[in-house]
């Protein structure tokens, strides 16, 4: 059994959802949402905002280590900020070369950098020099911008720059999140670099995980949307690896999910404004509909609601043990 990593997802998998998902168990590491680095030295509070776990030894409440992800295009600025981050003792520092968002790519960050392997090397080498060897230094990349012509060169550049492991989202930037993920390319990358390569993309089920490992020749897998849609996916994968059966009927898992939904809702209410909180809950419920019919019914009931108190009442009617919002 290889490692299972919880992927960062901007605007969704924040510290609150990381807490809930790692509480179920099964993940060896989580990665924070990216922190954009653009021309200035960020204060410590900026790192703690995107990764509050830094105040707890860079671990979730369940004990899962959390690496902090940086996004930018300027080698010197990224290196300076990485050195600043070192003082907060992160579980790891990760570089984002995978984000396909146009707003990010227009400013030279994320997946657009895959058009320039030499720049990838300059960035990685600068950051490597800025952080001690004791802190794991990793990167995440896609297969390219529009094609795979420079995929292997990008992976080699990051290895030469000093990363200790690489996560590969097995799609190009232009493919976005459209299936399929080209797991066979992870295997090709693994043949040309001497660092561990982790596969990422389109792992929604235990069967997907098995096929991904086989096609990518990697025992290590990072899971993003599949983890959000099924909080018990990592647990189910590990059960199968131990030779245990996993239930086809998910009703018991839904019962286990109810207190996790309550905890998530309580933490979201405390973190964001009352106006924003219902939207965050709806995002997660929309993802859960893929695996739980009960989540579909709850999503339909919550979707038109805008007030926290209204959501409290509907959640309670659906068996979620909510604590009423403070007046």
Show the helix and strand layout:
Elements lengths: L3 E3 L8 H10 L4 E8 L7 H7 L15 E6 L3 H12 L6 E5 L4 H4 L11 H14 L6 E5 L9 H11 L3 E5 L13 H10 L4 E4 L5 H11 L4 E3 L1 H5 L3 H9 L9 H21 L5 H12 L4 H10 L5 H10 L10
Parallel strand pairs: 1-2, 1-8, 2-3, 3-4, 4-5, 5-6, 6-7, 7-8
Helix pairs in contact: 1-11, 3-5, 5-6, 7-8, 11-12, 12-13
* Rg, nearest Å: 20 Å
Span of the ends, CA to CA: 48 Å
Q: Could you give a short account of the major beta sheet?
A: 8 strands, parallel, barrel
- As residue ranges, the low-confidence spans are none
Task: Provide the structure class.
Answer: alpha/beta
Element-level helix/strand string: EHEHEHEHHEHEHEHEHHHHHH
Counting DSSP E segments of at least 2 residues, the number of strands comes to 8
Largest sheet: spatial strand order: 1-2-3-4-5-6-7-8
Number of helices: 14
